[in-house]
Write a structure and sequence with these properties.
mainly alpha; three-stranded antiparallel β-sheet; two-stranded parallel sheet; 6% strand; elongated
Length: 508
């Protein structure tokens, strides 16, 4: 039986991921259809009555004082799609485009946009029949351009992929048994307005960052164990006197992962404390998780909001179109800038732990975790890769939302730049996965140098046994890239978390 998300009630981050990444189908509830139809009836009534409504019977932006005749309202909606399709560069990935369609369905489906149900039904069919719009990703201040390229497909213009093959939108629709439509009053504006692409990209990045943060706990535990680290820094009494929830849950995860480690038990009295990259894991990971949790709350609020302008407010006799700016992307932009900073903080600590594993001056192991060093470089260069990735992450962690370039003849004299915040968060999340993968590679190779009379913890031992099915223990140099990629995919897929939770139950 095909899995399906029924729109009409509140949706969550996991729902967006399931549609965008795992091809869940989408359908509309009766409640969804009713509120869309009621909103549309109001727009048609007002157009018939020659009401002055922004973007319906007027021009857009600085042209809001230009009155559009009733006869031209349909042409106005097509024009906004054509004139706004100006983003450039590489296209959205399949999952990014699908996530944006999902967000448009959610945004307009709140029933405050005045769009006909048939428009949303075609967008739904695009998801269900695997029609993916070609959306250039560069050149948005928070809305408009990527969404316009998406909306081109509805009117049979632009390009789209059908089952992975790029073709004209008209041909893609035809292959799926669909027909282009003529947009009616308000519809072109509603399709390009709102924080739909901003929220879609932010949601994808955040989902992966949250998963990576939990993987970072696992990998930090692996590194602590192979470094014969001191577990007292994770004592629950320490957490009680500084009661941040996420700090406590991180320390809980580390203790749980290493609970039956004979390696950790045997070395507990060797020294008073470890370096900060081990000792501060609860504090840094906890702070980062707090930021990611805050971002998730904002993303899910945005997912269940109407971010259109104007909104069509149905209040009986007092119903009206209200021009405002829920399309502003500050909420998501600020959170995704913060999430990128949080991810970079996790990454910078991971790189430092990795450095301690491969530096013979800081560990009891051979330099770069290879016996015949000199002839072999061992794991010298993956740390260079971490350093390069971390440099990129630091650049990408510069906030986007502090920027401002006025547009539209100063009618839009302030712009939130939330789109850039979400777009760069996608890159940050991927780089974090690679940095953590390299630390895990070093922890795995370090485990070969441990005294075999002391047992590893149950979950770390299981991780290494599973890794041995794909990665050899390093005796001499070998091609490292495929193994780094494998470990990155292990983190991205969530399989690393699943392996650990299979042995010890849910982590926090």
């Amino acid at each position: 039986m095909e899995k399906c998300i029924m729109l009409g009630k509140k949706v969550y981050l996991d729902d967006l991921i399931n549609v965008a990444r795992y091809d869940y189908k989408v359908d509309f509830s009766k409640e969804y259809c009713n509120r869309v139809n009621e909103s549309r009836n109001l727009v048609e009534k007002w157009v018939d009555e020659n009401e002055i409504i922004y973007g319906v019977t007027t021009g857009f932006g600085a042209l809001c004082n230009k009155i559009i005749s009733k006869e031209d309202t349909q042409k106005l909606q097509e024009n906004i799609i054509l004139s706004h399709s100006t983003s450039v560069g590489e296209p959205f990935t399949r999952q990014e485009a699908r996530a944006t369609i999902f967000m448009i369905l959610q945004n307009i489906g709140q029933g405050y946009s005045g769009v006909r149900l048939i428009v949303l039904e075609i967008l739904k069919d695009m998801l269900n029949y695997d029609i993916v719009p070609y959306i250039p990703r560069e050149g948005s201040v928070g809305y408009l351009c990527p969404e316009a390229h998406l909306a081109l497909v509805l009117i049979g213009k632009g390009k789209a992929y059908f089952k992975g093959e790029l073709m004209s939108s008209k041909d893609a629709l035809k292959k799926a048994g669909l027909t282009p439509i003529k947009l009616a009053s308000k519809e072109g504006l509603a399709l390009v307005s709102g924080t739909t692409s901003v929220t879609a990209l932010g949601a994808l990045a955040l989902y992966d960052m949250i998963k990576s943060a939990k993987c970072a706990d696992i990998i930090a535990a692996c590194s602590l164990e192979v470094s014969r680290g001191i577990i007292t820094a994770f004592d629950e009494r320490v957490m009680k006197v500084r009661p941040h929830i996420h700090q406590d849950s991180t320390a809980f995860n580390i203790r749980k992962i290493l609970a039956d480690s004979e390696v950790i038990e045997n070395c507990k009295n060797e020294r008073l404390q470890d370096a900060l990259s081990f000792r501060c894991v609860p504090q840094l990971h906890g702070a980062a998780k707090k930021t990611l949790t805050d971002a998730k709350e904002v993303i899910e609020t945005e997912m269940n909001s109407c971010c259109d302008n104007p909104i069509i407010y149905n209040d009986g006799e007092n119903s009206r179109a209200i021009s405002a700016c829920n399309a502003d992307s500050s909420y998501v932009g600020l959170e995704m800038d913060s999430a990128s900073i949080a991810a970079t903080m996790i990454a910078k600590m991971s790189e430092r732990r990795n450095n301690r594993l491969i530096d013979s001056n800081l560990s009891s192991n051979p330099a770069f975790l290879i016996k015949n060093v000199g002839l072999n470089s061992g794991l010298m260069i993956p740390q260079y890769t971490q350093a390069g990735l971390l440099g990129d992450m630091r650049i990408l962690s510069t906030p986007s939302v502090i920027d401002n370039t006025p547009t539209c003849m100063n009618q839009e004299d302030y712009v939130a730049m939330g789109y850039n915040a979400s777009k760069k968060a996608i890159y940050v999340s991927e780089k974090l996965e690679y940095i953590l993968a390299i630390e895990l590679l070093s922890a795995f190779q370090s485990s070969a140098f441990l005294d075999k009379k002391y047992k590893l913890s149950t979950p770390t031992n299981y991780i290494y046994e599973k890794l041995k099915e794909h990665i050899p223990v390093m005796e001499e140099d070998f091609y490292l890239y495929p193994h780094i990629q494998y470990l990155k995919n292990l983190i991205h897929s969530g399989d690393l978390i699943a392996w650990v939770e299979e042995k010890i139950g849910k982590l926090k």
